[in-house]
Amino acid sequence: MSFFHTKIENLRGVGSQRATLLQKELNIFTYGDLIQRYPFRYLDRTQFYSIVDLHEELPYVQVKGILRNREVVGEGPKQRMVAKVSDGSAELELVWFKGVKWLQSIIKNHQEYIVFGKPTIFNGKPQMAHPELEEVTEAKPGQSFLQPVYNTTEKLKNYHRIDSKAIARLVFDLLKTALPHVQESLSPALIQHYGLMSKAEAYQQIHFPQTPELLQAARFRLKFEELFYVQLKLLRQRDQRKITLAGQFFREVPTLIHFYKNVLPFDLTGAQKRVIHDIYKDFCTGQQMNRLLQGDVGSGKTIVAFISMLMAADNGAQSCLMAPTEILADQHYVGLKAYADLLGLKLGKLTGSTRTADRRVLHEQLRSGEMHMLVGTHALLEDVVQFRNLGLTIMDEQHRFGVAQRSKLWQKNPNVIPHVLVMTATPIPRTLAMTLYGDLDVSVIDELPAGRKPIVTVHRYDANRLKVFQFVRDQVTLGRQVYIVYPLIEESETMDYKDLTDGYESVARAFPEFQISIVHGRMKAEQKDFEMQRFVNRETQIMVATTVIEVGVNVPNASVMIIESAERFGLSQLHQLRGRVGRGAEQSYCILMTGYKLSKDSRTRLETMVRTNNGFEIADIDLKLRGPGDLMGTQQSGVLDLLIADLAKDGRILTESRAAAQQLINADPGLANPENLNIRRHIASLPATAVNWSRIS
Ligand code: ADP
Ligand code: MG
């Protein structure tokens, strides 16, 4: 057991009561946990705002001044502590609503403080609620240039005196004895090549930096190491799986050639051809394919899926394509069945609403091998669905499926694990994809079919609705169709339903001359299909819907997408919705409707949509706005529990560390070279994780 596994209660100044608190509140169990609890910011004792310059747009700022007029006002739950700080330029009011008693014992009048907090303006005067205070003392020689600030909890701070400063003291004491025990975890070659600080020095400098430059170097070193080990693990797993998991060979392609020559009504784009080639190469290796196909909405992923299915069929294997919604499964089925029929291949559909009698026939055809291809929803995961020889499984709009559901598909062939192709149109920023899907091979379709006109996107206020409706009327008169989408938020389904039905009624009133479809999540599948089908057949001109139409639906004649309460949608969702139009030859439009009152983030989202059609650019901005934890499907993955690196900001370090990991694996796959002893030893010291990576996706 290493020094860093020592229990935290053994640290001087901790004891059993404090240890329990540190465990419960901050998840700090060992010396290692404490050392790796890096400061979340630093107090720079040289940078201060003048109080007179404070305004509400400022983020967290630091001022320095003398505290006066400390008093407790109010009674009971309204009780609060107020004080004033003056720096000669103006006065700043401070207020605390919690921990009043404790504050009384520590805040002193006439003392000079460094005050840190978010300024607001109240009655024309600057104010700060719950600021942090730091007594100004003479800087001691040798003291760190920047003071570390640690996250703690209200409970620790207010009732147990374990504030940031107390943690800093613990870390300081620990570092004194810990440094000799720190083992370098990167190889001398890596350290030299990337000019990295040593690990021991990085620990010292990240907590108590002597200069901003040293802090920068420490940060870089620790982020690099963290991302390097994530990537090394993912890449090794990918290679491991390739060695151990066999996949069927799909080398023969006679039907595919016939399809290209005689059936396919358009030319594939260069990007589609490239991706198909990637897939074909995988099929010729004898190893199981695990490939992620990313492509912006409308880039033509479905045909790539179908061509892959043809390769399977040409080699005696069955394939299935799983879609997240019934509507989408239907649409794939209708589109692909036309091709399959022309090729003499049997393609079936299985969804929740397939009738029992049909189901029985289908099950039998799948077991006998008579059915070559299957399109469906998660209904095809059920255990009764068995294949004679499933060779390829494709998941469309992959982020909608849970990990457990996905792994079920693997078990559908007891002899050879099927190849897996995962398709997503939710553009995942590159940095995130490298981490979330780092163990998959990735192909990207970065080109739209020729002749597509970029969608014109505008933002309009609700007050201009009449004009917008007139535009709708003009477009429909020209023969186009229009989507009007209302938000759907899970927590208040009833309210959204009301929004939607109110919306439907007002649309119906505004356009008595047009036929209108309505589709929402509460409808039965058959009803939905019926309405959808009417729209596809052009029997209706306007489709009023919730986000159920977000995914994949393809109606080339629809050229206008109106999104109501657009501020309530996330960026990637807006982009998905917009992707429902712009699929035909006509100029398409996306109109984002909102009220006048908008938050800063909402404005950024709307402006981004108006400015660009590029899904990857949008994804990057989305990541910056929301942070990786909020992006779809990332919470469950566990790969984002990073201590210091930030996927939204550290893209460059991630790319470098991944390249370094790949290079290491190529040069020394078994990590047997004595040069790499540090790395081997570090991996051995890592806790084994419960996640079985090879089974994800
Ligand atoms: P997505 O990538 O969003 O799933 P789809 O596969 O639904 O996109 O394709 C969108 C539309 O583009 C479909 O109507 C499809 O037939 C058409 N399409 C796909 N590839 C091409 C191409 N190379 N040339 C012209 N049209 C294409
Ligand atoms: Mg699609």
TrEMBL record:
EC primary class: isomerase
Keyword hit for Nucleotide-binding: yes
Record domain Helicase C-terminal: where: 470-629
Keyword Glycoprotein annotated: no
The enzyme's E.C. designation: 5.6.2.4
Keywords per UniProt: ATP-binding, DNA damage, DNA recombination, DNA repair, DNA-binding, Helicase, Hydrolase, Isomerase, Nucleotide-binding
InterPro entries per record: ATP-dep_DNA_helicase_RecG, DEAD/DEAH_box_helicase_dom, Helicase_ATP-bd, Helicase_C-like, NA-bd_OB-fold, P-loop_NTPase, RecG/Mfd, RecG_dom3_C
GO terms, molecular function: helicase activity
Catalytic activity: Couples ATP hydrolysis with the unwinding of duplex DNA by translocating in the 3'-5' direction; ATP + H2O = ADP + phosphate + H(+)
SMART domains: DEXDc, HELICc
Domain Helicase ATP-binding: 282-445
Stretches assigned to coiled coil: none
Function (record text): Plays a critical role in recombination and DNA repair. Helps process Holliday junction intermediates to mature products by catalyzing branch migration. Has replication fork regression activity, unwinds stalled or blocked replication forks to make a HJ that can be resolved. Has a DNA unwinding activity characteristic of a DNA helicase with 3'-5' polarity.
Protein family (similarity comment): Belongs to the helicase family. RecG subfamily.
Name of this chain's protein: ATP-dependent DNA helicase RecG
Natural source organism: Hymenobacter fastidiosus
Taxonomic lineage from the root: Bacteria, Pseudomonadati, Bacteroidota, Cytophagia, Cytophagales
